[in-house]
Amino acid sequence: MKPLPYFSRSQLGVILLLGAALLLVYAWRAHWLFSPSPPPPGIMNLAFVEVTGPVEHPGVYFFPAPPSLGDVWQRAGAAGTAPDKDKKIASGSRVEVGPSGGYRLTVMPGTQLLTLGLPIDLNRASAEDLEAVPGIGPALARRIVEYRNTHGPFKQVDELHEKVLGIGQKKAEILKRHVIIGKIN
């Protein structure tokens, strides 16, 4: 049997300090002891709108409040004046400007919404949009959409846990941070 190595008190102290430092770094990264810092004031209230099509400056724009179509039209450099210039545009919308000056209003893809910190509407999202949500793979996304198509729109996010196979309580809590139930028409 081989004898164990001998460490001096100073060597043991250094090993102990390094171990404690590694443990604190791990706790910090896992948010066990320290909660993440809040976002800067006002950033959570921004409205994000994407503009595509034949405009001078296509892209995603942010506004301090939901903008009108006229504001979006002007900011993106679309030709002419906006058809419904006073119409309010919700955050997370995509304005697709047509070559003839018309437009089509849709929703940004799920990956883009989550990147901007916006939730995905559970009742309007495609399976591809839902795959962007952490913890939802292709099979689970299909099951959610199939359940919605068969049984109608969700009324609460909690229904995911109760009615969709493969979503446990833990996963449902995670999903609540990324999905919402929009207005049902």
Q: How many distinct folded domains?
A: 2
Oligomer designation = single chain
Strand order of the largest sheet: 2-1-3-4
The named CATH superfamily of the largest domain: Photosystem II 12 kDa extrinsic protein
CATH class of the largest domain: Mainly Alpha
CATH architectural arrangement of the largest domain:
Orthogonal Bundle
| SSE succession | HEEHEEHEHHHHE
> In one word, what is the shape?
elongated
Q: Which fold name is given in CATH as the topology of the largest domain?
A: DNA polymerase, domain 1
As a percent range, the share of strand residues is 5-15%
Describe this structure in words.
By secondary structure, this protein is α/β, with parallel strands linked by helices. The protein has 2 domains: 43-108, no CATH class; 111-180, Photosystem II 12 kDa extrinsic protein (DNA polymerase, domain 1). The chain has 7 helices and 6 strands. The strands form 2 sheets. A 4-stranded mixed beta sheet has the order 2-1-3-4, with helices on one face. The longest helix has 21 residues, at 9-29. The mean pLDDT is 87.
